[in-house]
C-alpha cells in the first residue's frame, strides 16, 4: 500500500511517499516545493512528478494521503480528513494561525485533486489525549475551560517517534504496541514495563515531553504552539499579566501585541540578532551579550521542563534530543546536560561534540540515564497511523 505524507506550510509543500505493509514502512521518495503561491498547481506538479519518476504507476495506486494537522477544535486523534476536520481546523484558526489555515486549505486542494483517495489527519495533539487531566488543565474560570482553553501539547508525531525509537535503542519492551492503540482506542502499557523518556524536540519550534511506556504524561507546549520553551520568533511561556501591562505602557493594540509575541519574540526577540541558533551562536562567540542571553534562556527553559518531567516520571531512562537544534547543536546539548551527574545524566563530551544529524548515544559509559540523539521522523508516524486507520476500516 502506498501512502503519501504531505507536510503543508504557509508557502511550502514537502512530501514523502511510503510503501507500507504489516512489517513496516519503506521510504520510496521525498521532495518539496518552496515559495508556493498556487497550491492547486503545486499539488498537480507533485502528483505528476511521482508518476513520471515511476514511484506511482497511476493515482489509483495511492491508498491515502496523510497530514500532520496541528490543532482541532473539539477534535483530535487520527481520523479521515473530512468536513469535520476542516471545520475543527478553522474553528481554532486564531490559536494556531500559521498552521491551521494552510492545512485546512491544503486538505481542500488535495480533495479536489484526488477525489477518490482517502485523506487522513493525524493531529499533533493526539499524543497527549491520555496525559493526566491535572497536566492538561489551566487554573482558569469554568467559562474559559468551556471554550476549549487548556493545555493541548504539540509535536505529538515527533515525540511519539522518539518514544518508540528510544525503546528500541535501549532494548526495552516494544512501546509501539501502546502507541498503536493510542490514537484510536486507549493506552495499554505493556505489563511490568516502566520506560521513562524525556524527549526534547528542539527546532524552529520546540517542546519537551515526558513519556512513560509510550504514553505522554505532560508537555511544555500548552493551548497554542507559541507557549512553553522560547520558540524561534514566538514568545514561549509568558506571565499573562505582562500583556495588559505592555498594552497600557507601550500603547499597543491587541493586534500589535499578537504580532510582537508571534513574530518578534522568542530567540529573535531576546538576541536581537536572528531566529536561528547558528547565527545567534556566532554572534555570542563574538561577544554579543544579548545573543548569549538568548542561548542561556533557551537552555534554562529546556532544563526547567526536563526537571519537571524527571520528577513526574520518578526518574529518567533516556533523555533524547531531536529536530534541527537538538540533532546538531552540540554546545546547547552540553549546556542542557551540565551539572546533572547527581541526577544520573552524564555526557560523554567527546561523543557529544562529534555527533551531528545522526543517531547515537552521547552519555558516558557510567551514566545511569542514556542521553540519545535521534533524528526526527514525524512523517513516518503519520504514514503508520494512516496505515492503521485504513487497516482498521478494512477489518470493520
Ligand atoms: P527544524 O524545525 O527541526 O527543521 O529545525 C530548524 C532549526 O534547526 C533552524 O532554525 C536552526 O536553528 C536549527 N539548526 C539546523 N541546523 C543546525 C546546525 N547545524 N546547528 C545548529 N542548529 C541548527
Outline:
The protein has 396 residues and is α/β, with parallel strands linked by helices. It is built from 16 helices and twelve strands.
How are the SSEs ordered, and which strands pair?
Layout: E1 2-8, E2 13-21, E3 24-33, H1 39-52, E4 62-67, E5 78-80, H2 83-91, H3 97-113, E6 119-122, H4 133-136, H5 142-146, H6 156-169, H7 176-182, E7 196-201, E8 207-212, E9 215-219, H8 242-250, H9 254-263, H10 266-271, H11 277-285, H12 289-313, E10 318-322, H13 323-328, H14 330-337, H15 349-354, E11 360-361, E12 370-373, H16 378-395
Parallel strand pairs: 1-4, 4-6, 7-10, 10-12
Antiparallel strand pairs: 1-2, 2-3, 5-6, 7-8, 8-9, 11-12
Helix pairs in contact: 1-3, 2-3, 6-16, 11-12, 12-14
Residues 203-204, 232, 276-278, 323-325, 328-329, 376 line the site of adenosine monophosphate.
- In the CATH hierarchy, the architecture of the largest domain is 2-Layer Sandwich
| Oligomer kind | single chain
Count of separate structural domains:
2
Shape: globular
Descriptive tags:
alpha/beta, binds adenosine monophosphate, 396 residues, 2 domains, 16 helices, six-stranded mixed beta sheet, Nucleotidyltransferase, domain 5, globular
Tell me what the structure shows.
The chain has 2 domains: 2-122, ATPase, nucleotide binding domain (Nucleotidyltransferase, domain 5); 177-378, Nucleotidyltransferase, domain 5 (2-Layer Sandwich). Helix 2 (83-91) runs antiparallel to helix 3 (97-113), helix 11 (277-285) packs across helix 12 and helix 12 (289-313) packs across helix 14. The chain is built from 16 helices and 12 strands. Strand 11 (360-361) and strand 12 form a beta hairpin. The protein is 42% helix and 17% strand. It has a 6-stranded mixed β-sheet with strand order 3-2-1-4-6-5, sandwiched between helices. It has a 6-stranded mixed β-sheet with strand order 9-8-7-10-12-11, with helices on both faces. It has 396 residues and is of the alpha/beta class. The chain binds adenosine monophosphate (AMP). Adenosine monophosphate binds at residues 203-204, 232, 276-278, 323-325, 328-329, 376.
Amino acid at each position: 500500500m502506498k501512502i503519501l505524507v504531505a507536510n503543508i506550510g504557509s508557502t511550502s509543500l514537502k512530501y514523502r511517499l511510503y510503501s507500507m505493509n504489516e512489517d513496516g514502512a519503506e521510504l520510496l521518495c521525498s521532495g518539496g516545493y518552496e515559495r508556493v503561491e498556487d497550491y492547486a498547481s503545486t499539488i498537480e506538479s507533485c502528483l505528476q512528478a511521482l508518476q513520471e519518476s515511476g514511484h506511482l504507476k497511476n493515482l489509483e495506486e495511492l491508498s491515502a494521503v496523510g497530514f500532520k494537522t496541528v490543532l482541532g477544535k473539539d477534535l483530535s486523534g487520527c481520523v479521515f480528513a473530512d468536513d469535520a476536520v476542516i471545520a475543527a481546523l478553522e474553528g481554532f484558526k486564531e490559536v494556531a494561525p500559521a498552521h491551521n489555515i494552510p492545512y485546512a486549505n491544503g486538505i481542500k486542494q488535495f480533495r479536489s485533486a484526488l477525489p477518490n483517495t482517502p485523506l487522513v489527519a493525524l493531529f499533533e495533539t493526539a499524543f497527549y489525549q491520555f496525559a493526566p487531566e491535572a497536566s492538561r488543565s489551566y487554573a482558569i474560570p469554568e467559562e474559559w475551560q468551556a471554550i476549549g482553553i487548556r493545555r493541548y501539547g504539540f509535536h505529538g508525531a515527533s515525540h511519539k517517534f522518539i518514544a518508540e525509537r528510544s525503546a528500541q535503542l535501549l532494548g526495552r519492551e516494544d512501546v509501539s504496541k501502546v502507541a498503536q492503540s493510542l490514537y484510536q482506542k486507549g493506552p495499554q502499557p505493556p505489563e511490568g514495563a516502566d520506560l521513562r523518556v524525556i524527549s526534547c524536540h528542539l527546532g524552529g519550534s520546540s517542546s519537551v515531553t515526558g513519556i512513560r511506556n509510550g504514553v505522554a504524561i505532560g508537555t511544555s507546549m500548552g493551548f497554542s504552539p507559541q507557549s512553553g520553551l522560547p520558540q524561534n520568533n514566538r514568545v514561549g511561556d509568558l506571565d499573562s499579566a505582562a500583556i495588559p501591562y505592555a498594552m497600557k505602557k507601550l500603547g499597543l493594540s491587541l493586534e500589535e501585541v499578537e504580532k510582537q509575541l508571534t513574530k518578534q519574540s522568542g530567540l529573535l526577540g531576546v538576541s536581537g540578532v536572528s531566529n536561528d541558533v547558528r547565527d545567534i551562536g556566532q554572534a555570542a562567540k563574538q561577544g554579543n551579550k544579548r545573543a548569549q542571553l538568548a542561548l542561556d534562556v533557551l537552555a534554562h527553559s529546556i532544563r526547567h521542563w526536563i526537571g519537571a518531567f524527571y520528577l513526574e516520571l520518578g526518574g529518567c531512562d533516556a533523555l533524547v534530543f531531536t529536530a534541527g537544534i537538538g540533532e546538531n547543536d552540540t554546545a546547547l546539548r552540553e549546556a542542557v546536560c551540565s551539572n546533572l551527574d547527581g541526577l544520573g545524566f552524564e555526557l560523554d563530551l567527546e561523543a557529544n561534540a562529534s555527533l551531528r544529524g545522526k543517531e547515537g548515544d552521547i552519555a558516558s559509559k557510567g551514566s545511569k540515564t542514556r542521553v540519545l540523539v535521534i533524528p526526527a521522523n514525524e512523517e513516518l508516524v503519520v504514514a503508520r497511523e494512516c496505515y492503521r486507520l485504513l487497516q482498521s476500516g478494512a477489518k470493520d
